[in-house]
Amino acid sequence: MAGKHKSTDGQQQQLTVALRIRPIFANEANRGPGVVARAVAGKIVIFQNPQARNTADVLRAKRSHEKRFVFDWAFDGKTTQEEVYIKTTKQLVDNVMKGYNATVFAYGATGAGKTHTMVGTDQDPGIMVRALSDLFKEVRNNSDATSYEVKMSYLEVYNENIRDLLNSHSGQLDLREDSQGNHQVIGLSEVSVSNEYEVMKILTKGNKNRTQEATGANQTSSRSHAMLQVHVKQSDRLRNTVQKVRTGTLYMVDLAGSERASHTRNTGQRFKEGAHINMSLLALGNCINALAVRGVKYVNFRDSKLTRLLKEPLSGNCQTVMIAHISPAAIHFDESRNTLLYADRAKNITNKVSNEKKMSDEDMKKLRDDIIVSFNRQMEVRKKVMEIDNKLLELTTEFGKLAITLNDWETEKAKLDSEKDKETSDGEEEEEPQHVRQAWDDIEFVISEQHRYLSLREETEKEYDSCCEKTYKLAETLPQKTNSEEQKELLDILMRVHELEIEKMEMQADQILREHELRQRDILLARFDKQRQLCDEIITKQRAMIDSMDNGDDKNMKPSRELLELYQIYSREFDGRESVINQLNNNDHRTNSLWKARPPGTTDSMLSVKNVERRPRRNSLQLPPISR
Ligand SMILES: Nc1ncnc2c1ncn2[C@@H]1O[C@H](COP(=O)(O)OP(=O)(O)OP(=O)(O)O)[C@@H](O)[C@H]1O
């Protein structure tokens, strides 16, 4: 089997080119110098110029008049129909069943064996029948899990007119280009088929309708290009699974003879046909030449109906096999050489093959719905995270307030204890008032709530991450799944709108956090303020104590010179600070703007609830001792 056909999705694939040399007929062998084309080693064609045989120097003649062509496959007169089918087309059938498109077309001069390869006879059928027979075998083998719909259409292009071979009354049919750049034949009948016997009947009927005429070159020459299209649509039968619908099309084309019109010695109508056939084959040749040159952006498929119909097979999402045909007879040297050169050129054509690219309106709607559902879920979960954050921030604020109440109480208790010491010296601890006991209970509750919300946040954040991943995976499939710019643009806009929604939500969350930070700073500042007042009080009292000692008898308790200097600096700082605070209190606006700057030394962890731990109940406020 040709390894070249085993398609990996989205990969560049070269056109597979096979060359078939039919057996020489007795009348051909009698008429000239015999055989000029031989297939060697299954891949090489040795082609000789018959005139070389007249040269005396046999070796020199051989070198200059013998040409070798290498193809994917080279078949000779002994190769069976089955072998040709297995090597060129069998894998295409497998790929069509996987949802790819595939084309096999027969090219060559009149009488070179195209129809024999494509259609064959009842006793020895050709590719069309064998491919359909294999396709139905696959359908039967997989019918438990998959439901299939196989439809066929068969048309011919004759004198640049398209006719339906399955409906002889259809007349000429129009070819239209859809929004995705594919060509469709309007009004072409599609027949549902379920087994190979029906296919055989339909093909025989179609071939009878085909324009055939005896010419000087062939007894039953096909004067038209015939195209058989087999569409396979499949969907999973299994319940509770996502319905996956795949469609693949197999195009099988039997082209009209490619020889020059003059060779058939035709005049009048026959000549006109020849001219048309050659015009479309010339257009096909031009397309093949253009496609074979790497980097060519524009290929003109518009010149003929045939090239318009073959646009997708040759340039688009399709695996394509060309089977070129030649006669081995010396009398057909010119046509055979032309065919060999065409086929050689066609080897360079590459197609990009994918079974994902084509997207029906139904699939498009599903993808759009999936994206919306995924985004909405993402927004919902993000909202939940925001609500949790909000709750955590409220708890942090609450914690801050309660901490102030407790600190206030510790300060007050220290004062009360020292006053009591003076009076009674019994060392009994001050009883906590009701609001302080309540504050301890509340702070305990706040801490347990913080832990609860933190673990909830962790879970919800994980859920949010998986939602984001799902949405972006869907978004990533877009370029592969759509082939229309319009579809892509629409889905891009949809994605952008939702991204903006998410961004808006993030900004709201940011705003809430900022407001909370401001509140936290207020609380922190209030705590600093209390601490400062306490320090002031301590320093002032110590100063008074030292002053009183200074006046007393104990000269050893005199403060050092250094300490006295520090007191002076402190009182200057104190006066300056008081005047700034007075100024700020008179001007609310400026006070607010001052809060906007983070107080020096305030770190994120100071604002975070995670790091706040319950203070030990009986631990009074610790101040650094002033060392003398
Ligand atoms: N490989 C082959 N083995 C045996 N007979 C062949 C083979 N190829 C072609 N023939 C015979 O040669 C004759 C011409 O072949 P065929 O009609 O297939 O040519 P064609 O290329 O389709 O010609 P046209 O373009 O005129 O339709 C037929 O009688 C056919 O049976």
From TrEMBL:
Binding site for ATP: G108, A109, T110, G111, A112, G113, K114, T115
Stretches assigned to the Kinesin motor domain: 14-349
Domain of life: Eukaryota
Gene3D superfamilies linked to this entry: Kinesin motor domain (3.40.850.10)
Composition bias, Basic and acidic residues: 414-425
InterPro entries noted in UniProt: Kinesin-like_fam (IPR027640), Kinesin_motor_CS (IPR019821), Kinesin_motor_dom (IPR001752), Kinesin_motor_dom_sf (IPR036961), P-loop_NTPase (IPR027417)
Coiled coil as UniProt keyword: yes
Record keywords, A-Z: ATP-binding, Coiled coil, Cytoplasm, Cytoskeleton, Microtubule, Motor protein, Nucleotide-binding
Region span, Disordered: 414-435
Record's subcellular location: Cytoplasm, Cytoskeleton
Pfam families according to UniProt: Kinesin (PF00225)
SUPFAM superfamilies: P-loop containing nucleoside triphosphate hydrolases
Family note: Belongs to the TRAFAC class myosin-kinesin ATPase superfamily. Kinesin family.
Name of this chain's protein: Kinesin-like protein
Species, as recorded: Limulus polyphemus (Atlantic horseshoe crab)
Classification of source organism: Eukaryota, Metazoa, Ecdysozoa, Arthropoda, Chelicerata
Gene, per the UniProt record: LOC106459841
